[in-house]
Design goal:
Helices cover 19% and strands 30% of the residues. With 144 residues, it is of the alpha+beta class. The chain has a 6-stranded mixed sheet with strand order 1-2-3-4-6-5. The termini are far apart.
Amino acid sequence: MNNYYISPSKNSLFIAIDKDTNQLIATAAVRGYDRKDNIKNRNYNLNSTASIYRLFVKKEYRHNKIATRLLRRIEEFCRENEYNEIYLHTQKDSYGALSFWLSQEYEIVDDTHDAMGTIHMEKVLTENVYKLTSLNEAEDIIES
């Protein structure tokens, strides 16, 4: 766990603890994209793509926005660490997972239709991909 989520500076492990019982109730982890296989039509890499792993909430604590709050913290961490997008995969039969990710503005990039029902998803974090300017606003205007 230390090698994957704690030691590397652009990786992190997040937890939620019930203040009353002091019990661990949720986890979420993020690390640079290090999968060996490529996702269809995507160029993910270790430096610019984060991967979400291990987002789990104990059954009795679900539907209390805990996963949403953990995810917001992960997205904030990813922006601070200059990731351009976040990748994750889930399975169609994982109760509530696909609808949760879609509600958080993650998009399906590949439905593998495999035996496990694997769905690959992403959320693009970079808002200003292009810098637009007009010639009237440019500092150096060439005059003839």
